[in-house]
Amino acid sequence: MNKILNGKELCNELRISTTFFYKMKKAGMPYHQLSSDSRAYYILDEVEAWLYKAGFHQENKWVK
Q: What's the alpha-carbon Rg for the chain, to the nearest Å?
């Protein structure tokens, strides 16, 4: 089942800092919005697949 998360929940789930989160967002991390003025939400499986495709792997934290 796909988990749908907000930014804070995604950081907690992936065990990443908000700094890393914003770097990944700027790099094109996939997200969804219901409308242009609504908050972004993230599907955990999509984000993890994107991280792997971008060359990251997870040890204790996501690294390249």
A: 11
- How many domains are there within the chain? 1
14-63, pLDDT tens digit by residue? Answer: 999 999 999 999 999 999 998 888 899 999 999 999 999 988 877 666 76
Rounded distance between C-alpha atoms, residue 47 and residue 31, angstroms? 8
Number of CB atoms found within 10 A of residue 37's CB: 6
Q: Which domain holds residue 32?
A: 4-63
pTM: 0.82
DSSP, residue by residue, 12-50 = HHHT--HHHHHHHHHTT---B-SSTTSPPBEEHHHHHHH
